[in-house]
Amino acid sequence: MLARGLRRRFTSRDSLPSLVLLNADRINFDEKLDFTPLTSICNITSYDITSTDEILDRVQGHSIILNKEFPLPSSIISQFPSSVKLITELGTGYNNLPLSILKSHSISVNNLPTYATNSMSQQTITSLLSLSSSLHLQLKDTTKKYLNQCHLSSLPHNEVQGKTLGLIGGLGNIGTSVSKIAHVLGMHVISTSSSKPVGHVSSSGVEVVKTDDLFKESDYVSIHCPLNEETKVRCREEENETGMGTGTGTGTGYCISAKL
């Protein structure tokens, strides 16, 4: 086995386009991925880890760059060789890429919009149910061996049936998957949208509402909008003061600037 961080070259045929994977460790952390099926359509060079200072040298001569959440600075992209035509982000978001700079250099960008849809929606619902049943508090008491310290109302349990789940930017793949599971649990689901008008009802039965109304009406809020400059601080302090009450946030990430 090659030492970690060294280059792996899977094939070399001049007639095929050349592809470089800058940070294989981000997707092949257990070393079980097999890249050889791709060798029928391209030459592959893979690096486990790439530092910012190594980017420019490692993209030389390649037409396709595969990348996983690794920031590519504008200053370096401006020096890319003309051979680079495409950057593929191995995930859903590409907030790590300066899109305007890439466009000015005629470099296309694509992503994997269905990446982790099932796992993310399951994690969202898992968090929701854990919070609604005080499971995290039960686990805490169990580890402290407070097994005989059960008192009425000490561990609140709220059934989610009939409750409202608000999704920020919830009409995409993950949000739609979340809403389908929530509906099975008997929840009402509403969402904000940057592309659909207020009042629109999606094919999965989710109504689009204003952001302020979502916070007022929701018992639970989960954030599923893409991370970019517009959404980075989407949940501002004033939005958190619109009357969410005892509601709970499940999927905040970098898009939130204050506690719900």
UniProtKB/TrEMBL annotation:
Keywords: NAD, Oxidoreductase. GO terms for molecular function: NAD binding; oxidoreductase activity, acting on the CH-OH group of donors, NAD or NADP as acceptor. Residues 43-124 form the D-isomer specific 2-hydroxyacid dehydrogenase catalytic domain. Residues 150-232 form the D-isomer specific 2-hydroxyacid dehydrogenase NAD-binding domain. This is D-isomer specific 2-hydroxyacid dehydrogenase NAD-binding domain-containing protein. Gene3D superfamilies: NAD(P)-binding Rossmann-like Domain. Belongs to the D-isomer specific 2-hydroxyacid dehydrogenase family. The keyword tRNA processing does not apply. InterPro entries: D-iso_2-hydroxyacid_DH_PdxB, D-isomer_2_OHA_DH_cat_dom, D-isomer_DH_NAD-bd, NAD(P)-bd_dom_sf. PANTHER family: D-ISOMER SPECIFIC 2-HYDROXYACID DEHYDROGENASE CATALYTIC DOMAIN-CONTAINING PROTEIN-RELATED, D-ISOMER SPECIFIC 2-HYDROXYACID DEHYDROGENASE FAMILY PROTEIN (AFU_ORTHOLOGUE AFUA_1G13630). Pfam families: 2-Hacid_dh, 2-Hacid_dh_C.
